[in-house]
Request: fold
Amino acid sequence: MGFRSSSEGAEEDTCARLASERDIARRVRITFREPAMFIVWGTKIKRRRIGRVADFCSVCHAFRAFHLVRVGAAGHVYHLSFGSGQLVGHEIVCESCETPAETRFERFAGVSSDQALPLDVLIRETQPDLAERCAERRELEMRVGAGQASEAERRELLMEPFMLVNPMLEQQQATNALSRNGRRAAAVMLLLLVGLMVVMGLPGSGEGREQVGAAVGIAFMISFVVFLGFWATSMRSFVRTEVEPRIVRALDPFKPEPEELAGILEHLKAGGLVSGRRLKSERLRAAFATHALTPGPGPDARAA
Ligand SMILES: [Zn+2]
Reply:
């Protein structure tokens, strides 16, 4: 089993991940934008956890346990797909901050199915040379943190989390997935709609039924407006709950200056990256300030 140096691997991982996520986003868009077809053919990305591995998390700045995820593209009919699909690649998702990242399966000496295996044992079983592979990277982090790195090294490290969250933003933009509260609002709205249909469908008539029908109807309208609100703000909410906390957690040890953040965002925007368009330096500055006041657990995690 061949191994490569961590810096070479990291660069390759980032590039491969961007390419594959762009591809995924494109396919998702194709899937949803063919409304006139009687049978919708296409591909659907399927993710399946296949075990646990140990690796270095650049958001947590530590060795962590990760879920190893198989990414497959499955053919489907009527949006129903079967099996795991054709292999597209692999991802790892940090068990602590739940940030996904592209990886190569060959990187690991083994994959553990033991959910309770302590980290040191997991490292030994899945990536025994992790410390050596990450030595250069950890040394760079220390130098940047201590203000002893070159400007180029510092900029590269500060840029990294923005590249990491970019595919997450691309995917969110493509699917406009609802937040957890948005999904709850949709469920309540549907329940009220069913309730309204049941009440209206009941036999007989009477004041009582009309009053109940009117109350359920008003509740449905309110839930519809609430749902629309969640739908319209889903990207903003995603940025605040999923993206900003990860950027802050990853960059806090390096104390980025507001001008540095603004410069990075400008650079990303010029490169046509979603993160450059969707993230605002004022919002990021506020997120860093809030984080400094209330250091706590990592970002809310999206279901994998
Ligand atoms: Zn992490």
Notes: The chain has a mean pLDDT of 81. Residues 6-136 form one domain. The pocket of zinc ion is lined by residues 57, 59-60, 64, 94, 96-97, 99 (CB under 6 Å). The first helix runs from residue 6 to 32.
